[in-house]
Amino acid sequence: MDLKIIGPNESSASGVVVDVVQPIMGMTPEEFSVLTRSMLIVIPHRPSEGICGDLAQTTGFWAIHGTPLAVLSDPFGGFVELTRAGIVKTFLQYCHDHPNIDKLVMIDADENVPWDAPYRLAQWDKPVVSGVVCTSNPVRGTFACFTMKDQYGAPRFPSVNYTRKMPGRGLKQVYSVGTGLICIKKEVLEAILASGETPFIIPDSVRSQSVESGILKEGEDIAFCRQAERQGFNIYVDLSVHASHFKYLPVTWPRAAIDYDLDAADWQVNDKDFAHG
Questions:
Q1: What is the DSSP string of 26-66?
Q2: What would the pLDDT profile of 165-217 be if each residue is shown by its tens digit?
Q3: Where would a tag sit more exposed on the chain, N or C end, judged by fewer CB atoms within 10 A?
Q4: Assigned fold of 4-259
C-alpha cells in the first residue's frame, strides 16, 4: 500500500495557513512538540466520496505542529479490514525509519474533529484510545460507536434513547471501540502480529456464521479489539473528545445529553440498549 506521507516540512493537503496556537493540555511547549511528533495520522477514504471539507481544513493545524499525515484512497473497494491491515503495515514501516513515531491515529474521512483530538487521545499514552463517534438509524436512534458492559455483563452500544446521558469528560475502559477516531500504540500492533494474527482481519469462523445467520456479528473494529484484548491490552474511550459524523446529516451525541457532573467511573450503559453479538 503506497501512502503519501505529508511530513512536518511539507505543505498540508488543504493548503491552509494558520497561526500556531498554544494548547491548553497541561503541557509545556517542549512536551507538546514531542507529543505531536510521536504519531502518524492516517485518513482513509473512498475515491467516490473524498474527505469532509472541515476535516481537510483541520489537516493544516497538524502540519504546522509537525505531525506527519497520510491520506489514503481505499485500494480495496470497500473491504475495510484489508484497508486497515494495509495501514498497519505501512505505519510499522514508517516507524522503522522514524523511531520517534509510536502511535497510529486513524480518522475517517466522513468526520469532523477538533484540531487537538489526535493529541488529546495520544496524551493518555494508553494502548488503544478512541474518541466518541456516533451514528444513527431509525430503530436505534443516535448511538455511540463503542460498547461497554451493562449491569449484567452484556456489551452494549450507549444510545440517546435509553442510556440518555453521557459524561462530558473522563477516560472509560470499554469492551470495544470503532476505528473512526482512534489512537493505537505501536506495541499493540506488534504484539498482535507476533501472535500470528493480522490486525483487523475478521476471523473465518465469524464469516461462516454470518452466512448462516445473515448478520455479521463482528466487524474489523471489534475483531481488532478482541485481538488487542488477547494480548493483554485494555481499550478506552476519552469521553471529552467528540467527532461529528456526517451521514445524511452530522451525527453527534446531543450537547443537552452531556452531563459534566456525571462521574465517568459511575456511568453505566442502560441494559435496554442494543447488545453486541
A1: S--HHHHHHHHTSEEEEEEE-TTT---HHHHHHHHHHHHTT
A2: 999 999 999 999 999 999 999 999 999 999 999 999 988 777 777 676 666 67
A3: C
A4: Spore Coat Polysaccharide Biosynthesis Protein SpsA; Chain A (3.90.550)
Query: For residue 188, how many other CB atoms are within 10 A of its CB?
Result: 23
Q: How many CA atoms lie within 13 A of 245 on its CB side?
A: 23
User: How high does pLDDT run on average in the chain?
Assistant: 87
Q: How far apart are CA 226 and CA 220, in angstroms?
A: 10
Assigned C-alpha cell, 166: 453521557
* 3-class state of residue 252 by DSSP: coil
Residue 128, beta-bridge partner list: 184, 235
Q: Rounded to the nearest 10 degrees, how much is the dihedral formed by the CA atoms of 108, 159, 142, 58?
A: -30
- Is the pTM value of this prediction over 0.70? yes
pLDDT tens, residue by residue, 241-269: 999 998 766 788 999 999 999 999 999 99
CA 264 to chain centre: 19
Task: Classify residue 153 as left (phi > 0), alpha (psi -120 to 50) or beta.
Answer: left
Residue with cell 493505537: 184
Q: How many angstroms separate the CA atoms of 254 and 264, rounded?
A: 17
How far is 242 from 107, CA to CA, in rounded Å?
Answer: 12
CB 72 within 8 A of CB 43: yes
CA triple 29-33-35, angle to 5 deg = 120
All three cell numbers of 183, joined, read 489512537
Angle at 245 between CA 116 and CA 168, to 5 degrees: 55
C-alpha triplet 62, 67, 68: angle, nearest 5° = 110
